[in-house]
Amino acid sequence: MNLTILTQVCGWILCVFVGLLALLILWLMYRGDIDLTQLISEPNGDASLSRFQFLVFTFVIALSLFLVIVGNPRQPEFPNVPGTILTLLGISGSSYLVSKAIQHSDPSGLVNPSANDVVISPAQAMVRYGQTRQFGAVVPRKPGSSVKWQVIAGGGTIDASGLYTAPAAPAVAPGAAPPLQHATIQVTSDAFPDAHDLAVVTLT
Amino acid sequence: MDLLLRFLRWEVWLFLLGLASIVTVQLLNGQINTRSLLSSNNGNMAKSGDISPARLQLLISTLGLAFYYLVQVLNNPNPGTFPSIPESWPTVLGGSHVIYLGGKAYSRWFSNDGNG
């Protein structure tokens, strides 16, 4: 008798605890403290259909399992899950994995497209007249891809490897320092022709 | 004990319904990001903005099959068991996924102008 009462009390405590926990989770989701905004998103910010279909199938099977368990006329018990249901879940899960493998086979599938497609470094530099300075560029969505270099304003030249050569110093009065001038270097990605970045060179 | 079981049923039922409602509402009002869900990729995995037939057919088959199965469960003549589904379903769903994955792999590895 005492054992039955103890079982009932433990059962109620457990149920109330789980219920409050579930309520808290739903409340936090509703308020946005549990952030669902990226629930079906890829690392690059686009929504993923494979994630979405996996979410739908998982939820439908979970709901079905609950309905089947509580629908048992005798008493709630775990039912036999037919092979076809498991096959459907397997297809859904496998498809998700293969889709992720395809997505992750290229870095371009992982980087946010809103981020810069080509990044020059350094973005600012001071170079003495007649001296050289090496610039570099990375293309986050396609590492190792080629870029084009160009001096679009000011003096100097830049070669295909990003080596900038400052112009010769202008003639000035003896003892006077050469005037400060600026040059602008532009790098353009071959993979993403619309993407470019700039560096400003101060000639001293 | 019956009261405890009834309480537990309602608890799980409300949680699942609440979860489904929150996710569905946030999907529909745009809080959950659905940008480019149906857009095709170009060769660099960037979305072109065009609707991809391969993605569209997978979305339709997934939602259709999920909805149909839920209706089967709700109208199950043998409560306590999973309703049986036709043997052809895995083939249909598998074929739909193969089309989607094939299109995705093709656009990623072989195409520069993208088809999904």
Rg over CA atoms of chain B: 19 Å
* Helical fraction of chain A: 25-40%
The count of helical stretches of chain B stands at: 3
Largest sheet of chain A: 4 strands, mixed
Mean pLDDT of chain B: 83
Q: In what range is the share of β-strand residues of chain A?
A: 15-25%
Mean pLDDT of chain A: 85
Q: Order of strands side by side in the largest beta sheet of chain B?
A: 1-2
Note the beta-strand portion of chain B: 5-15%
SSE string of chain A, helices as H and strands as E = HHHEEEEEEEEE
Number of strands of chain B: 2
Element pattern of chain B in H and E: HEEHH
General description of the model:
Chain A starts with a helix and ends with a strand. With 204 residues, chain A is of the alpha+beta class. In chain A, α2 (49-70) runs antiparallel to α3. Chain A has helices at 2-31, 49-70, 83-104; strands at 119-121, 124-127, 132-134, 136-138, 147-153, 157-158, 163-165, 181-189, 196-203. In chain B, β1 and β2 (47-51) form a beta hairpin. The longest helix of chain B has 27 residues, at 2-28. Chain B is flat and about 65 Å long. Classes of the chains: A alpha+beta (204), B mainly alpha (116).
